[in-house]
Amino acid sequence: MSIPTIDLSRATDQTRRPQLLRDVRHALVDVGFLYLSNHGIEESTIDDLVKMLPVLFALPEDVKESAALRQSPHFLGFSKFGTEITARVQDQREQFELANELEDKYSKASGLPLYTRLQGPNQWLKADALPEFREIVESYIAALQDVALRFLEVVTESLELPQDSLVRFTGPQDRLKLVHYRPSADATLDAQSQGVGPHKDSSGWMTFLLQASDPSIKGLQALSKDGVWLDVTPVPGTLIVNMGQAFEVVTNGVCKATTHRVLLPPGDYDRYSVPFFQGVRPDLTKRDLQSLWGHFDKEKWNTRESEEGQRVDSPFLRGKYETWGEAQLRTKIRSHRDVGRRHYADVFEKYVNDD
User: Fold this and answer.
1) Would you state the pLDDT for residue 215?
2) Residue 221's closest CA among 243, 185, 196, 203?
3) CA 354, CA 320: separation in Å to the nearest integer?
4) According to the UniProt entry, where is the signal peptide (predicted)?
């Protein structure tokens, strides 16, 4: 199986749009991963971000720690190597987690669900540390929000759904990660040198990933429906797109949230990546999504998935929690336990021990 490339510029060409819709449908239903080309993001927006990443992660540790994730109940900020846990193993990556700015509306007296606390403002480095940091990040987030909405329109039509039937499940906060993987002398891309372990994205409706290193630096792998790990080789000028867990639920399991992982790059070269997660409405329930299940009759659609993929921890898919927001809070606490202990002590044990 190969990972298809979708040329988004074909969406505005009415003579080519029908084939585009067929290609998107194949990518979503039969593969689960795709390259998105001609996405319309200004080259300067991407170049500014890519050039900034090595400078950002080369900053002194105390400067990066000034925006430490553990300080934020919204799980926004910097986390160092080994802080995050995926598939019960420490991930060997450092990262900044950011989002479009929202006000923190949660308090115990507000009556709002606890998962509302996930939404809030970013932590920014002091301006003298990296003056252009905030402007570059906010420009990139705005550009990705536009791409995500344009692509979701194509996706909706490709699945033969009524216009706007999927966009109503998105928002209000989209998230972005700036990620750095150090090379490992022992890495072979066959061994379990975990940059981030096998998982299905839970942080968004759809994920748009920029592989921000030299194309020769591999690491990202996707699990095929036959259980084979495939290299997702960097292709200049493209974004990698895959579906999140909520998308799998709304399509009644037809469009799988594909399992993927990152292995540490071998050799002497660092790897950088920038995933953007299109937001999911936090109060979303499976009951809200069931209105579309009749369209996705499993007897008429391909719903295959490998055994390994079926075993991946997926709380919203499994129906453990009523809302996507609570399922996301549980995932965040389990992944960043220092944040969970500090800001969510009342529910920390409940979520960490929920297997």
Assistant:
1) 87
2) 196
3) 9
4) none
